[in-house]
């Protein structure tokens, strides 16, 4: 698949995730093998808003990190198409900072840059923005496993 924008149909061909865990709606830019930018439209219809928190919905930080990890997974799978039958597992996260809440109606823009990559493990620096404001930043490590 060439560098560039990917729609939901393309994403479903790349990631094994499905509703309600698929947290990437569109890939806006891919520069193989080091950079990916993707989007998640956050709506009140998300199941997690029923309990987080009633009357004051906030997207759980762990799900923002998961959305960033899925974005990084798209970069890894696109960079290693021979690994399409392998799973991309989270190994760690460091330097996580939550800068602002993400609420229904927000458009989450995630940018991941690979700082280490191999056929087995990837480390990426990620940032997630809402309205050009930094919402979350983290370093994510994942492995492609059989």
TrEMBL record:
It is an enzyme of class 4 (lyase). Its EC number is 4.2.1.59. Pfam families: FabA. GO terms for biological process: fatty acid biosynthetic process; lipid A biosynthetic process. The keyword Cytoplasm applies. It comes from the Bacteria. InterPro entries: FabA_FabZ, FabZ, HotDog_dom_sf. GO terms for cellular component: cytoplasm; membrane. Keywords: Cytoplasm, Lipid A biosynthesis, Lipid biosynthesis, Lipid metabolism, Lyase. The active site is at 52. It catalyses: a (3R)-hydroxyacyl-[ACP] = a (2E)-enoyl-[ACP] + H2O. It is found in: Cytoplasm. Its main location: cytoplasm. NCBIfam families: fabZ, PRK00006.1. Involved in unsaturated fatty acids biosynthesis. Catalyzes the dehydration of short chain beta-hydroxyacyl-ACPs and long chain saturated and unsaturated beta-hydroxyacyl-ACPs. Belongs to the thioester dehydratase family. FabZ subfamily. This is 3-hydroxyacyl-[acyl-carrier-protein] dehydratase FabZ. It comes from Desulfoferula mesophila.
